[in-house]
Amino acid sequence: MEIAKLHQLFLTCNSASTDTRKITTNDMFFALKGDNFNGNIYAAKALSLGAKFAIIDEAEYNISDKCILVNNTLQTLQALATYHRNYLKIPIIALTGSNGKTTTKELINIVLKQKYSTTATTGNLNNHIGVPLTLLSMNKSTEMGIVEMGANHQKEIEFLCNITKPDYGYITNFGKAHLEGFGGVDGVIKGKSEMYAYLIKNNKTVFVNSNDAIQVEKTKTANTITFGKTNALVNIEFIEANPFVSCRFESLKINSRLIGDYNFNNIAAAITIGKHFNVSNNNIKQAIENYIPNNNRSQIIQKDNHKIILDAYNANPSSMHAALLNFEKQKGKTMAILGDMFELGNEAEIEHQNIANLASNLNIDYVIFIGENFFKTESIYPKFKSFNDFKLVFNFNKLKPSTILIKGSRGMALERILDLL
Predict the structure, then answer these.
(1) Residues 348, 354, 358, 361: is their CA dihedral positive or negative?
(2) FRET pair for 413, CA 20 to 30 Å: which of 228, 237, 298, 333?
(3) Partners of residue 146 on adjacent β-strands
(4) Vertex 182, ends 180 and 188: CA angle to 5°?
(5) Neighbouring C-beta atoms of residue 186, cutoff 10 Å
(6) Domains 3-77 and 90-290 alike in fold
């Protein structure tokens, strides 16, 4: 079926879905396939649960006129998303980066919502499946779209940009994330900069942190809107992070609920994008001050007599380094519980040792390492090969009231520590 005709059918549906566990009435179900699953098998179930159509790519599952047979379901999903994006004709902001992209996306969204009806990436829908689903979640009431893009190898951001066709783009930073797939830090810079290449080629606009030398260098030929502490189109002053970040722009002070000075750039980007799209200064201030992080991202949780900084959604050497430097500033008794950082390839051993060395040299009262990579490091602090090993021997009841940082990669699921307190 031609994409234009499929799109007409899609407009009669409520949304797109790839998971029968989340089907709602009048969805368009896409039967995706992977190494260990075949969505075609569930087409009939999707229809029985209320899906209006099921897009399949294996003829044996073509059981009714509600099934639409295509050559490749994933490619059809992606093509339909691009067609829908062009149909809506709305401004779309794309963002990527090694650290902070989800927090920045949330901040941009809450700021723009003060003036516009927005649709933004939800959860972790930032890959070759999630980005199309994000685009298809937009409708005629959407005035602006905000699309987060994740990547762990070359050409992935380029591919996602060609699906999304963004009008604006922002890269939060270039750090030590997904080193295995990208092939080192230089590979990270090259891979993430594919967004710049797309925007420059198509004469679109880039938001640039003028205090980031790599961003400035990579966008010399781009249409730019700059922000920074000085000498930028939008000047934003960092005041403090004690523990929450506060900043000032145009004589207006903003007191956020985000910890860590590394969140200053995320806030500054949201301020700049809000300014560009004519959100009032007072509305920008209100939006940022009301934003409370969740989903294991720099959450502040009070548990018994302990203050927990839960940052267990993800971790890489850059974010771990920044988190520890910020944590050292905490007052009172402090403990850092650190879990393995994933997808570092051949750099895993040295990067985990670097973090162990850093932790040993900081003014943190007590540090615990959990995971196979941290277990191999040389350190004066206790190490546990697995979470279960840690759980069996550590007794929080003996711990004096403390501020506790919990940080590790998603696969470590260190939020489980909360249940031990």
Answers:
(1) positive
(2) 333
(3) 93, 120
(4) 125
(5) 10
(6) no
Give CA 111 to chain center in angstroms. 17
Was 172 annotated as part of a binding site?
no
Residues 6+ apart with CB under 8 A from 144: 90, 91, 92, 93, 112, 116, 117, 118, 119, 277
Return the CATH number of the domain spanning residue range 3-77: 3.40.1390.10
Hey, what CATH class is 90-290 in? alpha beta
Q: Known binder of ligand: residue 274?
A: no
Instruction: Tell me the one-letter amino acid at 150.
Output: G
CATH number of 299-420: 3.90.190.20
Closest by CA position to 61, among listed 38, 79, 40:
40
Residue 101 in marked binding region = yes
What secondary structure does DSSP assign to 33-77, as a single string? B-SS-BGGGGHHHHHHTT-SEEEES-GGG--STTEEE-S-HHHHH
- Please check if 260 is assigned to a binding site: no
Q: How far is CA 284 from the centre of its chain?
A: 21
Tokens of 198: 């797309």
Q: What's the N-to-C CA distance of the chain in angstroms?
A: 56
C-alpha span between 117 and 98 (Å, rounded):
28
Q: According to DSSP H, which parts of 183-298 are helical?
A: 185-192, 194-201, 213-218, 264-276, 281-290
* Sheet (strand 234-235) strand order: 118-120, 144-148, 92-96, 168-171, 205-209, 223-228, 234-235
Sequential pLDDT tens for the chain (421 residues): 899 999 999 999 999 999 999 999 999 999 999 888 899 999 999 999 999 999 999 999 998 999 999 999 999 999 999 999 999 999 999 999 988 888 999 999 999 999 999 999 998 799 999 999 999 999 999 999 999 999 888 899 999 999 999 999 999 988 766 666 677 788 888 989 999 999 999 999 999 999 999 999 999 999 999 999 888 999 999 999 877 899 999 989 999 999 888 899 999 999 999 999 999 999 999 999 999 987 667 788 888 788 999 988 888 898 899 899 989 988 889 999 999 999 898 899 999 999 999 999 999 999 999 999 999 999 999 999 999 999 998 877 778 888 999 999 989 999 999 888 7
Q: Please give the Cα distance from 195 to 212 (Å, whole number).
A: 16
Q: In the chain, what are the domain boundaries?
A: 3-77, 90-290, 299-420
Query: Would you say 100 is a known binding-site residue?
Result: yes
344 three-state secondary structure: coil
